[in-house]
Give the backbone structure.
Amino acid sequence: MSDRVLLAAGLGLVAATYGLVRLAYGLFLPDVQHDLGFGADVGGAVSSGASVVYCVGAVAGSVLAARAARWLVVAATVTAGAGALVMASSPTTAVFGTAAVVASAGAGLASPAMVQLVTDRIPADRRGRAQAVVNSGTGPGLVAAGVLALVLLPDWRTAWAVAGVLTLAVGAVLFLAAGRPERGRTPALPGRSWFVAQTVPVVVALLFGAGSAVVWTYGRSTLVDAGVPTTATVVAWIALGVGGSTVAATARWTSAMAPRRQWVLTTTVAAGAVLALGLLPGSVEVALAACALFGWGYTAATGALIAWTAAIDPEQVAAGTSVLFVVLVAGQAVGAAVAGVLVGTVGTTTTFVAAGVLVAVSSGLSLRTGDLRTAVATR
């Protein structure tokens, strides 16, 4: 199959595993809580556990991607798709929480698989933009989840069932589009200098993950609590996805920037959006604009991380992506757990403001860093 089919199917897998399954948790959370009867602390704990399992999947993916990227697609599809189906039929909080945690592994497996497939099958002169386009799949997935919510809520069970079926379908298409596995050279394990060169991206990714977690877990909940009409809260989530979807359109522009500049721009936009949601959650107009900006900023920032690690060492881009995404989501695990406690003690406004400041710090820390490629080139 053509490169275009591969990229479209890869974007679809990212859309399904991230937007429809992993990140849609926060969208459906208020309705799930109402039916199954658990509080913000349990919701934060489940989100934190899902982030930990995502990290396990991403680590496994980084080890296996060079040799078995196509089969990682199968593993990502099955864990995310089947997990969503179990969530849809969950009779208790324990079953739902366990399924949500397991399903999150799908996204962790999908990222290194797609980075490796793009690296292996797309010419070098188009590879950077191709990576950004595939990674932007989170946005369309969030839009699809939002549309399901508009049509089906409060019937969150049917919504999760549809998400599961769609995930299984798009994964099958990608498996066929990827073709037969290629027997290329497996990159050697990174050396010490490679890990040293990743230090700044790792630190800022951790902080960004911790700060961004509040939107993914409590973004819709804070709008509901502020009295925003239910339909408007779902439309805000769709706006978040629309913002993420525009990353594909801006990829030519952003991929021309140095990775550090991409990072500063995108995380600054995301920080402003988090602060706006925390300070003016009751304004529908502000909520819509903030969600759209956050969707673009977050998705484009993850693309900047891919570009950053590719600039450090193009031969280890799958491993580097896995490391940075693991750290990002580890930060989300901590951020979700802490936010769950803070929301119940100091309120959503303070929690969101603190998260916005943390995202801004992740942007500012990269301002004094230079080009890190030399550190690897001299190893």
